[in-house]
Each structure stands twice: as C-alpha cells, then as structure tokens.
Task: structure prediction
Amino acid sequence: MGKAEASSDRVAADLEEAIHEHRLAPGSKLNEDEVGAIYGVSRTVARAALQTLAHKRLVELRRNRGAFIARPSAREAREVFEARALLEPRTARSAAERMTEADLARLQAHIDEEHAAVADGRWGRALHLSGMFHIEIARIADQKTVAEFISQLIARSSLIIALYWQRRGALCESHAHHALIQAFRAQDGDLAEELMKNHLLDLVTSLDLRNLNSVPTSLREALTQ
Amino acid sequence: MGKAEASSDRVAADLEEAIHEHRLAPGSKLNEDEVGAIYGVSRTVARAALQTLAHKRLVELRRNRGAFIARPSAREAREVFEARALLEPRTARSAAERMTEADLARLQAHIDEEHAAVADGRWGRALHLSGMFHIEIARIADQKTVAEFISQLIARSSLIIALYWQRRGALCESHAHHALIQAFRAQDGDLAEELMKNHLLDLVTSLDLRNLNSVPTSLREALTQ
DNA sequence: GCACACAAGATTGTATACGAAATTGGATTG
DNA sequence: CAATCCAATTTCGTATACAATCTTGTGTGC
Result:
C-alpha cells in the first residue's frame, strides 16, 4: 500500500518546483488565501504547505506578516555550499561504487533532457534538472538520510543561484556532469569524489558573494530584515 | 525585536525535549486532542507541532492513523551515524580553530551538569545534555546550516539509543567528551577531528544493530509496519 | 506643510465544526 | 462456536469562523 500523500504535500511540491525553476523569485510574498485559491484548497492546507517549505528553508515565515520565498544571505550561501562540500564528494564516491547500468542510463537521460532544455531556452527547467542530477547521485548512493540533506541543500542552492549567479560561463556545468558520468562508468570512486569536490568549488566561485548587490525584492523587505 | 515564536513551536520544543530525555518512547501514539489539551491549545496548533516534528523525522505521520514517535530501523540508525561521521569531525576541527575561553567554559559546564545528572540517576537528562554537547560544538563552529543538520541527527540518535543501546560501558561517553575539550583547549584541529571521528565510531559500535530485537511498542504497531 | 494619531482594511493566528476514514464491538449467521 | 458483516465510536482531514495583529489611508493639530 502506497503512502497516500496529503493534499498539502502536493501543494508544497508544486511550489517547490516553481522555486527550482525560478518562476517564483526570492522575496515573493505567498498569500495564504491566494495559494489556497490557486490550488483549490482551504487556507488550512495552504498554510501547512507553507510550513513544510519553511522547514526546508525555502520559505521564511514572519509572524503576523506572512510567508515569503527565502532570500538567502551571502553568508548563508557560503554555508550551504560548505555543507554540500562535506556531503556530496563522499556521496559521489559511494554512488560510483554501487553504480549499475540502469543508474548510468538514468543519469545520462537527465543530462540529455537538460541539454534539450538549454537548447529550447528553458533555463529554469535546465537548472532544475541540473539539481536533480545531484539528487539522483545521492539516491544511487543509497543513503536516504544524506540524500535528504543534499536535496534540501540543492533546493536552497537554486535560490542562491537566483540571487548571486553571475552570467559569465553559464555552460560549464554540463561539462562537469559529463566528467562525473565517466568516473561513474569506470566505477572510480576516488575520481568521482575529486570531480564532485572540484565541481562544487567551481559552482561557488561562479557566484558573486562579495556584496549585497542582490535585492530584487521590495525596498521594504530589504530594510526590515 | 525578537522572533516572537509561535505557540506551536513551544509545543514542538517541549515534545522534542521529552523525546530527548526518553520520557516519550519510540512508537508512542501522540493523539492530537490529547496533545492540545495538555498544552492548552487547539488541535490546530497541536497538529502544526506534530508536523514540525515529522519534518525532523522524530515523529511519523500516518494518514488517517495519527502521529507516532518515530521508531528508526537499524538501517536508518546506521545511516544517521554515517551522516554524523560526514559532518561532525570536520565541524569539530572548525570549532577547535575558533574556540574561545567562553566557549570552553560553556562546554565544561555542559559536562559538569551531565555528570551531576548521572550522579542523580537522571539518565534521560544526562543523555540530553550529552547530545547538547555535540550541538554546542556545531554552534561554536559557526556554521548554522551544518549545525541544524547535526541537531536533527542528534535528536534522531536519541531515539536510536532508546532502541538499540546495549547497557555495557555506559559511561564511556564523558571520557571522550573530556578528551575533546582538551583538544579544543589546545586549539588542535587535527586532534579534535580525529577524536570526534573515533567517538562516533565508539557510539555506533556500542549499539546492537544486528536484528530487530527492539519492539517496545504495541504488537499492532510492530506488525502493521 | 509636516508629524502624529486614529480608524478602516487586510492578513495572519487560533479555535471550532463538519465530513471521511479507520478501528472496535457486537450481532447475526453458518 | 467461529467467522463475517455492520453499526457505533473514535480520530484524523479539511473547511470555515472569529479574534488578534499589522498595514494603510485619512484627518487633525501645530
């Protein structure tokens, strides 16, 4: 028997995908009535969905003010990538050691779909798939607990990229993912760990975390923080 | 202005402390009406608190069945300690490098209070404080994101210990914590990392994760899972 | 014209009510 | 007597209603 997801889970999952695909910008207000109306549910379940996202740090709840898409600080951005650096390289090693043909095929499919999205100019979708690539690796490593943490960190990374990404060198990612697949195919754990480590370093250095030049939200939001 | 915590946060925090101190056993049913009555709040906020704990994997929600204190499987127990092994040693190193006198004093106070609790036979309290020692280290390392993950893992460890701890050698912990403080005092990052790594290995080996001999809950719970 | 106070509106926080699902207990039937 | 079916009870899932708080717009006094 399946797990019979609650309706609030469905709302939360849909909102989360919208965040991943950059259709919801950091700082956006999420009115409970509005969310409920969009998904045809009451405020009760809309509110539960927002609380779920708040626990994942994708949404910030302010008492008597409402729910807002999170706007990670530069410091938080660094912390997220430091946490990823602790978890993902070793996870990539584990994944390499347990990799099957089916897993490789699924990863390759991810990359292909990502390329297609890039070709179509669907940048949000491509970004989402790029994150899913990392999540898939964690899943293959067969460590649910770590995989969950990584999923959350990647979701937050999506917000960080929305805020701090500097355009230059947008396509470097897929190259790194290709190299990772090569290591996986060779079941070379050492190489996979090293490649993932460097990939994450590349990602961090492609961000501009120096100053707070990223305030795409209302002035009020920026000042009351 | 403070963060003005919601009332559901207070309920969740209190329930979590009860879990840490082993006053709530794994598998216990948490009736929404009952929880609400105990804390003098409506089912709405009791439910929100239970959802919060479910997100932390301390409570398991079963649709149309209710909320139960989580009962981690042996496999999940291994995963939790593997995740801790990825996060905590490096965090201990960072903490050692940033350690101040005030931090050392606070850690020492934790150990002292833990000893006092052990002397008084308050085992639950001692266990709680033992976990807090690890959380304090993560806080000192000044990495909120990682600290949050570690907090969650330690909370889950409390459930794991309730299920799988084998009594022999109950006091080994405080020794390891003392050794860690020595490393911190010397600001020896290498040593702190190594000590933490070994401490976690000791913890895992002090568990009996071989079989499912741990079913302190109702028969029904054990069979419907 | 500016600052402050106050009232109207909007939004969240919490409680309650109602419907749905599951469990439980007893009655019926073989 | 055992098995099964059905009703009664309990508990959860969701919607709605009311209260508290914050925002916003207006008016008054200086």
Q: What stands out?
A: Residues 31-33, 43, 47, 63-66 of chain A lie near DNA strand C (CB under 10 Å from a C1'). The beta strands of chain A are 29-30, 59-62, 66-69.
